[in-house]
Design goal:
By secondary structure, the protein is mainly alpha-helical. Helix content is 52%, strand content 0%.
């Protein structure tokens, strides 16, 4: 395909709103200030992600009667969904790193991450990368009281123990570290703490959590978007996904694992409340099937 120079010019919110109205979008006089505020505060390019699927690809026109309020509602649902997702995965992140740090510390020593024998590195993630990342994150956290306390009293080993570094490093590091544990017994002992007796399933699930959390934390759209990660089916628990890259698949993983922690959470109730607040947006657009609250994993 031949490439051509970019020639589009920027438009003011007022110009963009008029352009949308010219294409058939309904904007009542009373809601025009809200529409302009939305275009200014959210941005037309971002908002397009919530309307492009309804526009006629040939004429670029909106369906008859389609209103700006419908676009705004879709945007708000997505925003609330991101916030709920971050809150739920935050609970899981703390639980997973706590279980891993405690189990591996008890079995291999509080400085298990310095023991290269317990790992089976891959091309994508090696022990050198693991240690380097821990060193970097601990260095950034030197001002924190618990890190300073270790270095004030100890110089061997040269890094704090596992339960201390767990407060410094990212969730992604824990996911990658789990993947390169050499002993299947270690992997299974950790996964079973979360009700999953198949290591491959748990490994794909925690990787899913890191990806979805990053999407939500960086303001990525969830509505009508197929995720770049596919959590494995957990057939022995009856969990099978029609679309493994749907938000529903990730949401099921989140709920199943939250239940296993035994800690209080609002995930299922929050999802139901969001869907009730925005009745014009079908949960099916996120991959949720009819009767999803009674499906395995929920």
């Amino acid at each position: 395909m031949a490439k051509v120079p970019f020639t589009k010019v920027a438009a003011t919110p007022e110009q963009l709103l008029q352009k949308l109205k010219d294409r058939g979008l309904v904007v009542l006089p009373a809601t025009e200030p809200k529409a302009l505020a939305c275009l200014r505060g959210v941005g037309g390019y971002r908002l397009k992600g919530y309307w492009f699927h309804v526009v006629d690809p040939a004429t670029k026109r909106f369906p008859a009667g389609y209103s700006f309020e419908q676009i705004a509602a879709r945007c708000e649902l997505d925003r609330e969904l991101r916030a709920a997702t971050i809150e739920a995965i935050d609970r899981l992140e703390v639980a997973i790193r706590s279980v891993m740090a405690n189990y591996l510390s008890l079995r291999h020593s509080p400085h298990w991450f310095l023991n290269t024998a317990i790992f089976k590195p891959t091309r994508d993630w090696g022990v050198g990368q693991l240690i380097r990342k821990i060193e970097e994150e601990v260095r950034r956290a030197e001002g924190k009281r618990f890190v300073a306390h270790y270095f004030n009293r100890h110089d061997d080993p040269y890094l704090p123990p596992s339960w201390s570094i767990s407060e410094c490093v990212t969730f992604g590091l824990w996911s990658r570290t789990y993947a390169i544990l050499r002993d299947a017994q270690d992997k299974k002992a950790i996964s079973k703490r979360f009700g999953v007796d198949q290591v491959e399933v748990f490994q794909s699930w925690i990787h899913t959590l890191t990806v979805v959390r990053n999407v939500a934390a960086h303001h990525g759209q969830l509505l009508r978007v197929r995720l770049g990660v596919a959590p494995a089916n957990y057939k022995s628990a009856g969990i099978r996904f029609a679309d493994q890259k749907s938000f529903y698949a990730a949401a099921t993983v989140v709920h199943f694992l939250l239940v296993q922690t035994g800690l209080p959470h609002r995930w299922k109730a929050e999802l139901m409340a969001i869907f009730q607040r925005y009745p014009d947006v079908e949960p099916a657009e996120l991959g949720f099937p009819g009767g999803w609250t009674a499906q395995p994993g929920w």
